[in-house]
């Protein structure tokens, strides 16, 4: 069979053709309640008041969070549950006291993860700018000596 005949028999897929093995995700949207700041200057207040027009006290300083599960204190008042377990400080000290290096199968260090975190935060925290934003440049500086 020559290459031309084989080529002519191939199915040509356009980019819009649905791949039969891929599942399509349906995009949905949800309507959120109207939220706006009550502050005149347009900035959130330092104490959290006014972040929600319908419920101005929500997320304000001193307001209780919505409890999704019942309280479970060891003494019924405020002692942490399961006080017989190791606390975070003890676990941290045990991990930090390890003398041997823990290698992974790709021989990379945790610095790779830290670098990824840095890049993610750097990219995510960049403000949107116009595509061709002009930079202000200085032609020359007059420096008095």
Describe the structure.
- The termini are far apart.
- The chain has 145 residues and is mainly alpha-helical.
- It contains 3 helices and no strands.
- It has helices at residues 3-9, 88-96, 111-124.
- 21% of the residues lie in helices and 0% in strands.
- The chain has a domain at 33-63.
What labels would you give this structure?
single chain, 3 helices, mainly alpha, 145 residues
Largest sheet: none
Indicate the low-confidence ranges by residue numbers. Answer: none
Task: Kindly report the average pLDDT value.
Answer: 71
Number of strands: 0
Structural class: mainly alpha
**What fraction of the residues are assigned to beta strands by DSSP?**
under 5%
Order of helices and strands: HHH
Radius of gyration (CA) equals 29 Å
Region (Disordered): 1-25
Protein name: Peroxidase
GO cellular component, one term: extracellular region
Subcellular location: Secreted
Topology:
Blueprint: H1 3-9, H2 88-96, H3 111-124
Protein name: Peroxidase
Keywords: Glycoprotein, Secreted
Main location: secreted
